[in-house]
Amino acid sequence: MQFIAELGKSKREFYSLTGISRGTLESKTGITEDTLMKLFAAFPDLSPIWIFTGKGEKFQSQQNKTSPLFTANENIEDKLLNIIAQKDVEIKALAEEIGKLKQEIVQLKNSI
Asked: How much of the chain is in helix, strand and coil states, percent to nearest 5?
C-alpha cells in the first residue's frame, strides 16, 4: 500500500496496471506467488529485498550496481532462491555468534 501511495496512483489504477485482482492487497489471506509475479512483471526494477524486508532501496536501479544481487535474465523464482540462500548464510553466522555469546554468558556467570 505504501508503494502504491508513493507511485501517486489510486488502488484502482494500480490493480489495473498490474493485473492483480482488486482487493488482494487489503486481504488478510496474504500475497500469493501469482500476485508477486504480476507485481514484478509490471515493475521489473522493483527490489525484491525491499518488498520482502522493507530494507534497502525500492528500486534496483537505486542499488549499488557494482555488485548486483541478480542477473537481468533471472526469473522471480531464481531471485527468491538467491535471497533465501543469502539469508541462510546470515542466519548461520548469527547462530554461531549467539552460540559464542551464550558460552561467554556461562563463563561470566561461573566467574561471579
From this structure: 65, 0, 35
Dihedrals phi, psi of 59, to nearest 5 degrees: -120, 140
C-alpha closest to that of 70 among 57, 59, 58, 83: 83
25-75: per-residue pLDDT in tens? 888 777 788 888 888 888 888 888 888 888 888 887 654 443 445 555 567
* C-alpha–C-alpha distance, residues 14 and 22, integer Å: 9
Cell of 14: 494500480
pTM of the model: 0.51
Whole-number Å distance between alpha carbons of 54 and 111: 42
Rounded to the nearest 10 degrees, how much is the dihedral formed by the CA atoms of 74, 78, 82, 87? Answer: 140
